[in-house]
Amino acid sequence: MSKRIGRHLSKRSLSLDEFWEQEKDDLFKDIVPKTLKSNGSSDPAVQTLNDVNDFFSKHNREPKIDGPLEEKVLARKLNGIRKLSGRDDLLKVDIHGLLLVEISDHKAEELNGPITPLIDTSNDDALADSLLGMLGGDNLKGLFDTESLKQAKPKNTQDRVGQRTPCSNFIHYIPIFNQIKDKIDNSQDSIIPFKGTSKINVGDVFIWGGITCFVERELKMEYDSEGKPNPRLKIIFDNGMYADMLYQSFSQGMYRSPGTRRIKLDISHVLGDLSKPLAERYGNKTGEIYFLASHSNAPEVTMFKNLIKVGVTTNHTPLRTRNADSESTYLYAPVRILRILPCYNINVQGLESLIHTQLHEFRKEIKLRNKKTGKELVAKEWFDVSLEKAVSVAINIVRDSIGHVTLDENDNLYPNE
Fold it and tell me: Which InterPro entries does the annotation name (predicted)?
């Protein structure tokens, strides 16, 4: 009998502790830890900052720590990003200048909250807040410190979820949802799976997260970081809510949600003029009037409280300003987009000069030296004026130039019929 066989036969007389001591090294020798593969996700800091940017664009303020749960999460993440060091690359993404805000002791207390027990179970919001704190809370530095990783090209992931708001005129949409229900009840084959590559048009109907919804209208033409159209859409839900969402966010959100379905029904005919694209409602898009603030920390720039650059472009503003840190007209620094007025059927040629002339009393000549070349420049297209005043002057110039124009609730500027 071999020694190994004899050894195993002798196990019958061993106690459990003796057996474990004798065999523990052999029991797990063939077990190899499973290696997880990277999924190649983008920089979390950039993704989060894009979400915060979109929140600011929609609400004209940064997320608050005492807001709803989704807003709380954004507020905590923003605070975490502000604490990062050596991430100058984020300034290009920070179009609203939120990373340059000084956090005072009072503000820090507001963001971090007073000292409380580890888990506060006094109510649902407090419990959710406590759990978020246990999962990382403000201490997000480790999560966002990806300098040692290969950075993927940032993608436009703004407004991934979209904040749903009660629809005050929902009664007008009830007949439409009744039509959709009749279509589903009488034709089960009208429900088909949603494909991420499917094109989405105004009037299209979907079942998303168990809720029926449809695209009611195109609100504003926006563009992603690559210059591709990414219009903001108004979505109506059958539970009485609505949301303003970017096209890409709406499509990605539905694609990632299990069970999303498309209804083979086009209701654009009952929406009237709302179903038409902006170009059909207002005319051809001819340009944009933009209002910018500088991220420069040069004393010659920061000495002015309301320094604004007003410009006009026939391109898309995000593309026009993408390389601001290398252009003298933008003070060799990233810029923050304060507001954009898309112009439809309006000749924008010469508008910039007229606006600058009207704002001449607020003009500031800023002398700076290019750190790379040492060349001195004098920027003359910046104005120390409030945003409201600058926008008002621009609109009045357009009205004086072409007559009556309308500025809709989404900042689209077009001539009256």
Answer: Phage_T5_Orf172_DNA-bd
Cα separation of 68 and 103, whole Å?
22
* Phi-psi map region of 160: left, alpha, beta (phi>0 left; psi -120 to 50 alpha): alpha
Domain ranges in the chain? 44-92, 164-276, 282-415
Please list, residue by residue across 327-351, b when 16 or more beta carbons sit within 10 angstroms of its beta carbon and e when fewer do: eeebbbbbbbbbbbbbbbebebeeb
Token pair, residue 208, equals 């998303």
pTM over 0.70: no
> Would you write out the chain's pLDDT as a tens digit for each of its 417 residues?
444 444 444 445 566 666 666 665 665 555 554 433 333 346 788 888 888 888 887 777 888 888 888 888 888 888 888 887 667 777 777 777 777 654 443 444 444 444 344 455 555 555 555 555 555 555 544 444 544 444 443 333 334 346 889 999 999 999 999 999 998 888 877 889 898 778 899 999 999 988 999 999 999 998 876 778 889 999 999 999 999 999 999 998 999 888 899 999 889 888 888 788 888 889 899 999 999 999 998 899 999 999 999 999 998 888 888 888 888 889 989 999 999 999 999 999 899 999 999 999 999 999 888 777 778 888 889 999 999 999 999 999 999 888 888 899 889 999 886
